[in-house]
Amino acid sequence: MDAARGTVSPAGSRDEQAIEDAFDRLVDEGETRLARPLLPLVSTGLLGGVDVGIGVFAYLVVDDKTGQPLLGALAFTVGFVALLMASSELFTENFLVPVTAVVAKAGRLRALVRLWAVTLGANLAAGLLMAYLMITARPDLRGTARELGAHYAHLGVTGQSFALAVLAGAVITLLTRMQHATDSMGVRIVPAVLMSFVLVGGMLFHSVLDSILMFAGLLSGHADYSWLSWFVALVWSAFGNVVGGVGLVTAIRFLRVPHRIAEERDARA
After folding, report:
1. Domain range summary for the chain, segments of one domain joined by +
2. What is the pLDDT of residue 13?
3. Max CA-CA distance within the chain?
4. For a FRET experiment, which of 6, 15, 21, 44 has its CA 20 to 30 Å from that of 59?
5. Amino acid 4: pLDDT
6. DSSP annotation string for 71-113
7. Which are the contacts of 94, defined by CB distance < 8 A and separation ≥ 6?
8. DSSP per residue, 106-168
């Protein structure tokens, strides 16, 4: 703001224009995602589960060999780099982009629910297969898998576990927002590494990632938790992820562009 004339500075104008341009890209991409046919939607969700599963495998190997969870968290980042470069899809990546499209009336709420349900189901199906493969291929990792899986299964339905899930949703949605600020693949890899490290290093409660860890523990045998414990953890963590991603990050982003939201809604009325 120019103090002498009370006008917006050129730098401020450029910043506002960049924010509006980013909003327009989110609406366009969100509209495309919401209209995607079922088969491509399932395939990107399955690939997302495979990519995260590779990250979980790296995490287990490094944690088992070093006993250093933060090194394991660093190894896990390969999974999110794969997600980005392979254009696959994770349930929690579908908060900012498609929700923006729905708010702008570029998509229907039922299409958003369909996107979430199919992507989460496909992520989990592929994650279960990956857990089976990694435990079968590397039976020496079973002890570590049981230990890590038990940690998330025993978090329970508490205020602490909900806060961990909200933070996980916020972290992944912030990752999505950071990546949509640039078209450079090299730059987009940076937040993929940094934010996935925060997710795993902080032991946040993520519906898909932690489900794969719990799957690996359950398939290893002699786990001190059950499939019912996993399901309760899934529902609770997914709810917290949505609250964090949609309520804590996406909704606040809308406060930056209320005029553009109104314009988009009017144009599509």
Report:
1. 14-264
2. 67
3. 72
4. 44
5. 40
6. HHHHHHHHHHHHHHHHT---GGGSSHHHHHHHHTTSS-HHHHH
7. 33, 115, 116, 119
8. SS-HHHHHHHHHHHHHHHHHHHHHHHHHHHHH-GGGHHHHHHHHHHHHTS-SSHHHHHHHHHH
Fold assignment, 14-264: Glycerol uptake facilitator protein (1.20.1080)
Amino acid, single-letter form, for residue 19: I
Q: Nearest to residue 73, comparing CAs of 160, 193, 170? A: 193
Q: In this structure, what token pair is assigned to residue 19? A: 């924010």
CA distance 71 to 94: 28
Give every residue of the chain whose pLDDT is below 70, as ranges: 1-15
Give the burial class of 71: count Cβ atoms within 10 A of its Cβ; 0-12 exposed, 13-18 middle, 19 or more buried.
Answer: middle
Q: Global pTM?
A: 0.91
CA distances from 123 to 26, 27, 104, 210, 235 (A): 23, 24, 27, 12, 14
CB atoms within 10 A of CB 225: 19
Q: Give me the sign of the Cα torsion angle 195, 196, 199, 203.
A: negative
* Geometric angle at alpha carbon 32, from 249 and 192, rounded to 5°: 45
Q: Helix H segments across 6-37?
A: 10-34
Task: Specify the pLDDT at position 10.
Answer: 54
Q: Hey, what are 269's tokens? A: 């009325």
Token duo for residue 203: 């032991």
The candidate with the shortest Cα–Cα distance to 239, out of 144, 131, 148, 161, is 161
